[in-house]
Amino acid sequence: MKKAQIVIGLGFGDEGKGITTDFLASQNPDAIVIRFSGGQQAAHTVMIENEKHVHSSFASGALRGLPSYFTEHCTIHPTFLFNEQEELNSKQGNIELHIHPLAKVTTPFDVWQNRNNARNLEHGTCGKGVGATMKRNESPYKLFAIDLIAPREMLMEKLKGIAYYYGFVEEKEIHDILLPFLDAIDGIDWKINDYTWLNSFNHLIFEGSQGILLDMDHGVFPNVTFANTTSKNAYEICKLLKIENIEMYYVTRTYATRHGSGWMSNEKELHLRNNEEETCTFNEYQKELRVGEVDYNLLNYALKLDAAYVLPTKRNLVVTCLDQMDETFKIEEVKMKFDTILGSYSPYSKDFKKIEIFAE
Q1: 51-55 and 44-48: which strand pairing?
Q2: E strands along 203-333, which residues?
């Protein structure tokens, strides 16, 4: 029987979806890991022994050797993808990546828009062009993964149209901006496959992006992401593939995090330890990683909300970063019943690296 495991963050992101996905990948080496929202703005960190990789354009099973699949709900940026491909290859990771034909392609012009539009900067952006890509694709100036293997003349006409859409009119400037982008396209062995290709796998691991509280339909607008970060997309794909055996893995830290602007409850300064290698620290667009006490009311809200989208056979809770603070996670405050509750210590901790059961 085919089986699916869906990993979902319960907060504003940075909950530990990468280490959870890697844990599932370690148990299921013949599985494929599927990204079903977001894109190159992800920063899902996995550490195996002394090897560390931040997964953005590849799913978080790649360092462990599993192939990746990006759905139509994702974005890809060929330049970022090529650079990560080279880095992952040097670490002997798996660079096999299959992409749905309708995945949306980010161009250098979308990145420029994200980084230079005052409203984007005010509402929050990673500066990777994801929001601009999704917004542009609501216009006639669309670009999909399938276009990357279309005749080059056709691709160029579409790229020029996107440049004009953003106000770029100088031919030489457009040419210079596109040159490294086109080189990256030529450096990638594109595997464009629709969902029927996934039928060759009996085990599918769906890796979410960001967190439920940033969902475009349920977050506090306008500080949301341009994606459905609930299990909605993953569950629809499972139904399409006629997969009924579905396990949920809901992930939260022992404290709350938010990287970027917008409302956050219980924000306060915390004394954290064993977090020296925190991936999401500071960047010029999102600024510092914000932290606070865990809000159990928000956790319960997120869990009940996601239950409206998925009918799983099993629900699991994963609590990460147990070694970063002294306060005990109060499982009795969480209203949903779980089949299993898992706890993980920091993936960078010198003493703990495995996910271990700490309560049932």
Answers
A1: antiparallel
A2: 203-207, 245-253, 255-259, 282-283, 287-293, 314-320
Output the pTM of the full model.
0.93
Amino acid at 349: S
- Give the Cα separation of 67 and 29 in Å (integer): 10
Angle CA 27–74–149, to nearest 5: 105
Number of domains forming the structure of the chain: 1
- The answer to whether 74 touches 145, Cβ cutoff 8 Å, is no
Separation in Å, CA 244 to CA 189, 280, 338: 33, 35, 18
**CA distance linking residue 212 with residue 215, whole number of Å:** 5
In a domain, 95, yes or no: yes
Which domain CATH number covers 52?
Answer: 3.40.440.10
Residue 314, beta-bridge partner list? 247
Q: Give the residue numbers spanning the domain of 238.
A: 3-101+192-252
Q: Token digits for 116? A: 């230079």
pLDDT tens digits for range 236-255: 999 999 999 999 999 999 99
